[in-house]
Amino acid sequence: MRAAILLAGLVLALPACGPGDDGGPAEDWPLRVDAPGVLGYVSMPVGPDDLAASLDRVLAWRPDGLSGDGSFALVLLDEYVHGSPFAVAVPVDDEDAFRASLLASPNVTAGARDAWIFTLPRGNALAQAIQVARSMAGANSPQDILAALGEEPTIAWSMQLAHHDGRAVLAPSYEAGLTVARVLDEVGGLRAADGPLVLSFDAKRMHLAYKQEIDGLVQQVRGMLLNVQMAGLGGMLAAGMRGAEVPELDLPVPGPALWALLEMVGPDEVEGLQVELHGLDVGAWVDQFARSVSDGPDVMRDEVSAALDPVLHVRLRTTWIEGSPRAALLAGVRPAPELPDAVSFAFEPVSFPAALAEWARPLVELTMGEGAPAERLIAEMTELLAPCEGTVLVGKEEGARALVLALQPGRELDVDGFAEVLGLFAHTLDLDDEGLGGPRPWDGAVPPEGAVPAGRYWTHDGAFVLTLDDCGAAGLDGLLGELRDVLGGGAARGPFLSVRQEVPNGLLRAGFYARGRELVLEQDVPVQR
Fold first, then answer.
1. Number of Cβ within a 10 Å radius of residue 34
2. CA 40 to CA 3: how far, in whole Å?
3. CA-to-CA distance for 170 and 101, rounded, in angstroms?
4. pLDDT tens for residues 380-439?
5. How many C-beta atoms surround the C-beta of residue 355 within 10 A?
6. Whole-model pTM above 0.85?
7. E strands within 188-244?
């Protein structure tokens, strides 16, 4: 837990260069590495000058002799194994100049056998991140965290210097340096001088290494969400200082329902998590951050835009443990068509309905209670989805939306049953369920000329159609035609959930892919300038 917070602090203070090879396969960047005691890594391709300035900002030491070959690597370590939560590896072409810069720094002291003691001045970025990590590790309340943040003790630690494959490695020990060398060899992309910003976390190892801290934090969050009274940090502090009653936090859904939704995500069952960003120049943004904060949000927005390419490409990869409801859900999806101005989703009609109902178990049990009532609702949800062929389109025609669902031959959809289940969930989530029970059938197999009012449904040519807005007949005919083309075109290749949407500054594209137990999000985001 503390290592993750330290990593976040380091990432905020270090720059990365611009876009890399957009077409590189995701498997070039391993989600998890075999080296012992490694909890993750960060790859930040960055020029020597920017890297030197950033290390000066983070470690209060400006190195010399840096090379433009290779990326800056930050390796996240299990501090119970290696004695420190991180190690760094920087490309160098002049080892003597690099060592001389260590000797010349007033914040670095030479120790025995190439050990170097770094002392952080008060108020620097890494010192503040360490304080946050320490305070969270031992805090019982938000007030404890803020009290610890008010302290500014001297922070110092020892790092061992080694060299490996054109890199200077600063690690907490000789053994940790060998571990970092294994990571550099295993993650081939770290040798590239250009490329994306990559952050990869071994979530399974992190949970094992910091099980007590993580479980404690989870229980605190769960306890707060299940309580009737909720409070924001500022409100809690203000109330505590005045001795007043703690105010409620305005949540979008009730606390117990929010916890159920978090359980459906299954964060405790994640094995690995990786973020890959192309087209983001973190350095250009970080260097202007102080001025942006002082000059106001408009400047901040301009600086963020200036640090981005016209299109930001994002790849997010997540792997869940085998046998989890999330893994079963991924096993039931299949590639969907990519259509303009539409959201498309496809699933395997045999296995997906049961997997979806089981995935929703936390919300079902909150709604119905554990035991027989919940089991009956899960079985009912599975049966309701049974007529579906497996392709869903939410299409848009001149601002009007309609949902089109392919059905198996001769099957009908139980709309009233769906409305009843949705109404139950809406009540649990404290949502406005007006209209959920009110879609009405349309008289006739095909829509008439003119607009079809919102909330009408009918079955036509093997598809269930539900108008979400007032829709024109021509647009609906076009959606039905697209669905017929999809069903007649054989198996689609690509994401199981696809979004293509024209936006004022370009084309927004997103696709969710399933690779066994791995979920991959690929997204192109046009930048607003």
1. 9
2. 10
3. 14
4. 999 999 999 888 878 766 667 888 888 988 888 998 898 889 889 988 888 765 544 467
5. 21
6. no
7. 197-201
